[in-house]
Write a structure and sequence with these properties.
alpha+beta, 14% helix, 14 strands
């Protein structure tokens, strides 16, 4: 089984900031990654509806980390389970678990990738075209080479290498359009 990945909105960072928001569909799972700050909620909801997915259909929401620019619109998805680096939250339940290696669905798993924050996780989706990695290890295709807000630059670079070792066909960064990674 493979997942289908659709970017709902490309993020950006500068004098204004928006997270890249992505939908992953895998069988009965509809997973939204990083429903954070956007110019207007329609930047998330309109493309979602165009793909035939209603907010109540979203089964899971993944936070790459807990900065508001990646979490602010989580309440748009009231039926979802919410995933972060150490737990799954739904309604009034808080089920603690390590995110590293956790299978959200058959073709979607989480990977601990600290660096930007010590709680960062990446979402890995096996698709028909190969592995797609959704991560804040990169803000956009050009990096930046050193994350100006990283809590640990060395760890960030080590985790970039770990992600690239998986040989993803596509990286969806925290604040930019998807890009094809280069190796070596």
């Amino acid at each position: 089984m493979t997942a289908q990945v659709d970017v709902l909105t490309d993020g950006y960072a500068g004098d204004r900031v928006a997270s890249t928001v992505t939908l992953i569909r895998d069988g009965s799972a509809a997973i939204v990654v990083d429903p954070g700050m956007v110019a207007r909620r329609g930047a998330i909801l309109d493309p979602l509806a165009a793909l035939g997915v209603q907010v109540g259909d979203v089964t899971d929401v993944v936070f790459s980390h807990h900065h508001p620019d990646h979490t602010l619109n989580a309440a748009l998805f009231p039926a979802a389970r919410f995933h972060d680096f150490w737990a799954i939250y739904q309604d009034d339940r808080w089920d603690q678990r390590d995110a590293d290696g956790f299978q959200v669905s058959p073709a979607v798993r989480l990977m601990a990738t600290p660096g930007h924050t010590m709680q960062d996780i990446s979402t890995l989706a096996d698709t028909d075209t190969g592995l797609v990695v959704l991560t804040h290890l990169w803000w956009h295709a050009d990096g930046p080479p050193d994350d100006p807000l990283a809590q640990d630059q060395d760890l960030l670079h080590a985790n970039r290498a770990r992600v690239l070792a998986q040989q993803p066909t596509l990286i969806i960064p925290g604040h930019g359009a998807p890009f094809v990674p280069t190796f070596g």
